[in-house]
Amino acid sequence: MGPIAQLVELPAHNRMVRGSNPLGPTNKFAASVRLYFYRGADMIIIKNKEQIDGIRKASIIAANTLKYIEPFIVEGVNTEQLNQLCHDFMVQNNAIPATLNYHGFPKSICSSINNVVCHGIPSIKDVLKNGDIINIDVTAIHEGYFGDCSKTYIVGKANPKITEFVSITETAMNLAIKALKPGNLLSIIGSTIQTYVEQFSYSVVRDYGGHGVGLHFHEDPHVSHFHNKENEIILKKGMIFTVEPMINMSKNWRVVTSKKDGWTVRTKDKSLSAQFEHTVLITSDSYEILTLPDEG
Q1: Which of 255, 272, 290, 277 is CA-nearest to residue 109?
Q2: How many helices (H) and strands (E) in the chain?
Q3: Is the pLDDT confidence value at 29 over 60?
Q4: Taking the chain, what is the end-to-end CA distance rounded to the nearest angstrom?
Q5: Residue at 17 is within a domain
Q6: Mind listing the pLDDT tens digit for each residue in 120-149?
Q7: Is pLDDT of 34 > 90?
Q8: Among candidates 293, 177, 294, 151, which has minimal Cα distance to 240?
Q9: pLDDT of 166-210, one tens digit each?
Q10: In a domain, 270, yes or no
Q11: Burial class (CB in 10 A: 0-12, 13-18, 19+), 81
């Protein structure tokens, strides 16, 4: 194990990352945010109670969206229909879909079918078939706060090996989340996931990972889902980030991005890929999953 990144609070006049204030000079949250610098990382925002409450509300809307869309994921539906349903649901719940027009992304959700790892673009041409798997990734903005989650659904009835694969992917995420608490290293996420899935001859996508979230769509730290010494960062109360492993149903973790649309990421060997995601808060002695739907 390499040296552990040290936590140092920067003076207010020197709270910079990559040459600029990540919150921007006019951000209404800037005055109340505590920013910390890690050697070997960049800048991680420690959220206060007001911000955590706001992020929790946004996260619940995102989770409720995934719960709402589940009965519509059936054979014969196209992903543009799913996109519109999710868009309308978020808007009706006073939220804005964060992906819409984000760096030019044209839709309100990501819909990734079968060998699409992430960032699939909804389309009327993508019609679900019995046995498909599809990941729906939703990020809701509510009152300026962000909540991010995703889930892989099975369309109809799939091959038992595929059903098992999807279940193992979700278990990998849950095992990693259960290992989180203040004082542990962020790298425990990747170590836990990689160790678990590789025993089934699956692999962890390395090109994409989780991220800090809450005041922005994407914040530091980057969260690796394989063992990575760059993630040897001490977890601290008030950190919020996503745990979102992308697992390939083969030993080949490599992916390729569509040259046509610049977004769609597929497995290089055309194997299936599954993903689950939660937004997670580090509490005083453990963790809290913020992206849980309302009961009922």
Answers
A1: 277
A2: 4, 18
A3: no
A4: 45
A5: no
A6: 999 999 999 999 999 999 999 999 999 999
A7: no
A8: 177
A9: 999 999 999 999 999 999 999 999 999 999 999 999 999 999 999
A10: yes
A11: middle
CATH at 82:
3.90.230.10
What integer pLDDT is reported at residue 295 of this predicted model?
A: 83
Q: Is 285 helix (H, G, I), strand (E, B) or coil?
A: coil
What is the token pair recorded at 161? 């090996």
Q: Does residue 10 lie in a domain region?
A: no
Q: Residue 97: exposed, middle, or buried by beta-carbon count in 10 A (0-12, 13-18, 19+)?
A: buried
**Domain range spanning residue 53?**
49-289
Residue 85 belongs to some domain of the structure: yes
pLDDT score for 135: 98
- Sign of the torsion formed by the C-alpha atoms of 212, 214, 215 and 216: positive
Q: What is the number of domains present in the chain?
A: 1
Give the 3-state secondary structure of residue 139: strand
| Cα maximum dimension of the chain | 58
Please write down the HEC assignment for all residues of 49-81: HHHHHHHHHHHHHHHHHHHHHHHHCCCCCEHHH
- Rounded to the nearest 10 degrees, what angle do helices 49-69 and 79-92 cross at? 140
> Does the CA dihedral 55-56-61-66 come out positive or negative?
positive
Question: CB-hemisphere CA count at 13 Å for 206?
Answer: 12
